[in-house]
Amino acid sequence: MANKGRVIGDTLLKVENVSLGFGGVKALTDVSFDIRKGEIRAIIGPNGAGKSSMLNCINGFYHPSAGQITYKGQVRKQMRPHETAAGGIARTFQNIALFRGMSTLDNIMTGRLLKMKRGFWWHCLHWGPALREEIEHREHVERIIDFLEIQAIRKTPVGRLPYGLQKRVELGRALAAEPDLLLLDEPMAGMNLEEKEDMCRFILDVNEEFGTTIALIEHDMGVVMDISDRVVVLEYGRKIADGTPDEVKSDKRVIDAYLGVPHE
Q1: What is the mean pLDDT of residues 96-114?
Q2: What angle (nearest 5°) sits at the alpha carbon of residue 144, between those of residues 81 and 178?
Q3: Distances (CA, A) of 194 to 121, 127, 190, 257, 264
Q4: Is the separation of the CB atoms in 6 and 213 below 8 Å?
Q5: Using CA atoms, how far apart are residues 205 and 195, in angstroms rounded to an integer?
Q6: What integer best gives the mean pLDDT of the chain?
Q7: SS3 labels along 168-204
Q8: Residue 93 belongs to some domain of the structure
């Protein structure tokens, strides 16, 4: 399914010997891998392998106890989530984090906040430069709504939407920030087959049409093997494999740890 013919660029983000601990618990131990510009990079592993902890380190929710993360050639030290977002990294979450009482349109508009240049009082006046700016941002959001084919729910409070559509709205909010690197934490968890197919299509379209680099955590191995360019595998916070989907799915350590497929 993935467009294997697309051009993959230089390293966009590098994780080097990253460790993360909470008291006596080691969430990550000496993990290293990179993400290249333009690729779809999957992070897989059993529950508790440290996958979400790794995304939290990348976007600044957690700070590694050892090692370093380099983004766009710059070593990032003690970055906060808002600084990471301003640098071009957007995130969706394992558990949907939307404003349930707000409409689809307004939820996606919140993804434009870092792009707005006018101050609070200008927007309170809703006049002049602030009004023009809001119109420009709203036009961008409307294009995302069209892209994700959710025009019919643009004014619907997201709390009333089925789970699959809420996931699509969350993707739209992340896209509204125009990220260079999009982190997706189990974007297809809890979806039925039709919803998964739709989400796969949108992920591929985001990557191909917008040129967005994507790193995703996903448990559906069929999805991972179909859409990913490279896969890194974690187990108990340690990296056990890294390579193309074909290389990873034939790796004995991955089979033993995760896939559960008998081998010779």
Answers
A1: 84
A2: 35
A3: 45, 44, 12, 29, 35
A4: no
A5: 15
A6: 86
A7: HHHHHHHHHCCCCEEEEECCCCCCCHHHHHHHHHHHH
A8: no
Residue 1: its H or E element: none
160 is written with which tokens? 């009333």
Structural domain span for residue 163 = 100-176
Quick one: DSSP state of residue 256? I
Q: Do 3 and 62 have their domain in common?
A: yes
Q: Does the residue 35 lie in any domain? A: yes
Q: What is the pLDDT of residues 17-36, one digit of tens each?
A: 999 998 888 999 999 999 99
Phi and psi torsions of 177, nearest 5°: -80, 0
Under the banding of pLDDT at 50, 70 and 90, the label for residue 263 is very low
CA distance 249 to 225: 8
In a domain, 95, yes or no: no
The amino acid occupying position 3 is N
Amino acid identity, residue 74?
Q
Residue 94 within any structural domain of the chain:
no
CA 234 – CA 216 distance, rounded (Å): 13
Residue 2 has pLDDT above 70, yes or no: no
User: For 29-35, which contacts have Cβ atoms below 8 Å and span 24 or more sequence positions?
Assistant: 29/237, 29/238, 30/66, 30/67, 30/238, 30/239, 31/67, 31/234, 31/237, 31/238, 31/239, 32/67, 32/239, 33/232, 33/239, 33/242, 35/11, 35/181, 35/213, 35/215
Q: Sheet harboring 11-22: ordered strands across?
A: 25-36, 11-22, 66-71, 74-76
The CATH number of the domain holding residue 59 is 3.40.50.300
Domain boundary among 129, 148, 176: 176
Residue 4 has pLDDT above 80, yes or no: no
Task: Supply 260's token pair.
Answer: 């559960």
Q: What are 126's two structure tokens?
A: 């809703």
Q: What is the tally of structural domains in the chain?
A: 2
